[in-house]
Amino acid sequence: MSQAILSLQIANNTQLAQNKIQTVLNLLNEGATVPFIARYRKDQTGGLEDHEIFKIQKEATAIEELVKRKEYVLETIKELKVDNPLLINNIESCWDKKQLEDLFAPYKSKRKTKASVAKENGLEGLAKIIMSQKSDHINIQPFIKNNIKNETDAINGAIDIISEWITEHTYTKNQLRRLFNREGVLKSKIKKGKEQEAQIYKTYFDFEQKATRLPSHRILAILRGTNEGLLSSGISIDKQTAIELLERNFIKSKNQSAEIVKQAIANTYGKNLKPSLEKELLNELKLKADVEAIQVFSKNLEQLLLAAPIGKKNVLSIDPGFKTGCKVVCLNKQGDLLEDTIIYPHPPQKQHSKSIDKVLQLLNKHKIEAIAIGNGTAGRETETFIKSINLAKDIAIYLVNENGASIYSASEIGREEFPNHDITVRGAVSIGRRLMDPLAELVKIEPKSIGVGQYQHDVDQTLLKTELDHVVEKCVNKIGVQLNTASKYLLQYIAGIGPSLAKNIVEYRAKNGQFNSLNELKKVPRLGDKAFEQCAGFLRVQGKQPLDNTGIHPEQYNVVTQIAKQQKLSIGDLIGNKDILSLSNNLNLQEQIGKLTLSDLLNELAKPNIDPRKQEDQLEFSQNITTINDLYDGMILQGQVSNITNFGAFIDLGIKENGLVHISQITNQFINSPNDVLHLNQIVTVKIIQLDLENKRIGLTMKL
C-alpha cells in the first residue's frame, strides 16, 4: 500500500490534513518517536500536538492490519479459483473490517454444517429452484436419493442451504445491522436466587435502554454483572420488524416455494442472524465503552503523574497501621533509605509516648524537612498523632495517596531496589518518594494499578496498556529528566531509549561516573545516532555546556550560538534572558529553523526548565469527622477529588469511605464530563444529599 493511500485513509478517519499526516508517517518511518515529532518537528507537521500524532500512529497500525487481512482474503479467493471481478473490486476498495468479513464469509473454510451436508447430498439444485420462487409446484422426486429418504428430508436440506445464503447476503446483513443499531435495546435482569449477592447491581435487576444511547459505565457494569453470573443480559429488537425486512429482500411471490423461503428466513434469523448481530453490537458497545473508560483513566493518570513534587528534601515517611503498627522510614534528598523502624501509637498497643520519642529522635537525627503519611487504613489517625507532636514549624505534613504502593512493594522492581527489606519497608519508601517526585516513583508501578480508573480490569487490556504507556511517555518527556540521577525505570520512557538502553545508561553511569555532557551519551553501548537524536532534547545534564541543562535540542545549539554572537552575549547570559523573546519576529531565524521551532527555542532560553507541575493546597480535614457515622444529611464540608469517572467524581472526605458527586450534581451548567470542571486532588465544598449507612454510600452535591 502506498503512503498516499495510507495517509488518505487516515485523513478520512481522523479529519486531520492529509499533508500533515504524510509528514508524520514519513517521520515515523524514519524512526522518529511521537514525543520527538511533537516537540522538535512542529514546523514540518504544522504544529500537530502529541495526541494527534499518536492518533495517526494508531490509525496507521490499524489500517496496515486491515490491508494484511485484505491480502489474505484475496489470496484465499485466488486459490479457490473464484472468477468474480466485482467481488475482487469490492474487496480491494473495502476499508471497513466488518464489510470485508461479510464479503469473505461465503469463501471461508468452514467446519461441516447442515448446509454443507445438504450440498453433498445434491440438494443445492433444489434450493435454487425454491429460491427462484418461479413455480407453483416443485418436483422434489429427483432429489430423493442416497441419504435423502423422503420429501421432508429434501425440503429441510434445501432450507439449510437457503439459510446459509441468507446469512451470507451482505446487503441484507448491513440492513439488519442498521436496524440493530437504530432500534436495539440492551436489557438486563437479575438471575433468580442472586438478589442478595448482586446488590451492587441493583440498578440493573430489571433494566432496559436503547443500546447505542447507554453511557459507557452502564454498559461495563451490565457486562461485568453478566460475566459474574449475577445478571442475564442481551440486545432485543422487534422480531417481526426484522422478519419483514428479510422477507422484503427474499420473498418474490406467493406460491409454495415462497412459503418454504419464509420458513428458512424464520430459522435463519433466530438461529444465525440475531445471535451474530447481537454479539457484534455488544462487542461494538463494549469497545466504545472501553475507549471512553480508558480516556477517563488516561486523563486521571496524567493529572496524577504531573502532580507537583516537593523537591529534594529529607523525608520521614509513614505507612500507617493499627495492629501491625506504623512502618516509618527516613529518606535523604536523593530518596535513599537511611533508616527504618516501627512505632505503635494506636490501639491495641497504644505506645503513645514511646512513639513520640522515636519520631522526634528520627526527625533530629536525619534533619527531616517533610513528613509523608499514607492515606489508607489508619492514615487520618496517624496524621492526628503526628500533629499532636511539638514539631518544628518548617516541617510540613502531607497525606499521600498510597494507591499502588502495595503493588510496588511486592513487585520485581521493589525486590530489586530493596532485596534486604520486607514489603512494609518498600511500601513506606514508595509513599515518601511519591511525595518527593510523583512522576519518578509512579513509573515503577503498572499504570492500571495506580487506582484512578473506571472499570480498568474490565476493559480491553491491550488497548488499555497502549494508551496508558503513551500517557506515561508523554508526561516523562514533557517534564524531562536529569540524566545523572534518573532511575532506569524513568529513563526507559524517554523518547528513543526503552528498557534495554535505559539499563545500559545506568550501568555506564555506575562504571564511569556522572555524565559531563549530553554528547557523552554516544559512548553508551548500542546508543546510536538515531536514539541520541530522539532522546537528547528530553535529558538534562549539568556540565560544561549550559544548553545541556535545558530543553533545547543539540541540533539547535548552532542557532543559539548564532543568536549569542548577534546579541554580543555569552550563551550563559542568554539563558534566563527574557529580552530575547523579541527575536521571535526575526525572519532570517524563522526561515532558518521555522517559526514554531524558533518560538519554542526562545521560550526555553528565556525560561529554561520551567516545571509545569503545580503544588496543590493541602486540605485540613475536620478533626470531628473520623467515620461515616459522624456524617448527616445536609452536612456541608470540604473534600478532595480522589478519582474521576464518566458518571461523576469520588471525593475524599477524610474517612474510609469516599463520597460520590454524580455528574448531574457537579454544576448547574451542562458538562460532557466531570473532567471539564474538576481535576484530581482539587479541594471542593460539598453537601451530603444521600447517606446510606448500611451500604456505606455517600451521595454528594456541589450545587450549594
UniProtKB/TrEMBL annotation:
Protein name: Tex family protein
Signal peptide: none
Domain of life: Bacteria
Matches recorded under Pfam families: HHH_3, HHH_9, S1, Tex_central_region, Tex_N, Tex_YqgF
UniProt cross-references to PROSITE patterns, sorted A to Z: S1
Origin species: Wenyingzhuangia gilva
Domain S1 motif positions: 634-703
Phylogenetic lineage: Bacteria, Pseudomonadati, Bacteroidota, Flavobacteriia, Flavobacteriales
SUPFAM superfamilies: Nucleic acid-binding proteins, Ribonuclease H-like, RuvA domain 2-like, Tex N-terminal region-like
